[in-house]
Amino acid sequence: LVAFNRYVAPGAVGGQTFALVIITLAACEAAVGLALVMAAYRSLETIHVDEINVMKW
């Protein structure tokens, strides 16, 4: 995205801003996923999906 923006509009920083937002969003998603795994491990003492039945209705 940044390289494409450099050739299309050399003076604009929209591509860099968009890429930074996407990278930040991906980092937030990874942090939420890790927090869910850590919470499951702390409460159930396992991270194996087959052994976790709490999330079933």
Summarize the model shown.
The chain is mainly alpha-helical and 57 residues long. It is built from two helices and no strands.
Biggest sheet layout: none
- Bin the helical content: 55-70%
The tally of helices reads: 2
**What is the strand content?**
under 5%
Can you tell me the overall shape?
rod-shaped
Give the number of DSSP strands. 0
Mean pLDDT: 81
Give me the strand/helix succession.
HH
For the termini, the CA-CA separation is 42 Å
> What structural class is derived from the secondary structure elements?
mainly alpha
Number of domains: 1
**Which regions have little confidence, pLDDT < 50, spanning 5+ residues?**
none
Radius of gyration: 19 Å
Kindly list the characteristics that best describe this protein.
single chain; 57 residues; mainly alpha; 2 helices; 67% helix
Verbal overview:
With 57 residues, this protein is mostly helical. It has one domain. The chain contains two helices and no strands. Helix 1 runs antiparallel to helix 2. The model has no long low-confidence stretch (mean pLDDT 81).
Architecture blueprint of SSEs:
Elements: H1 2-8, H2 14-44
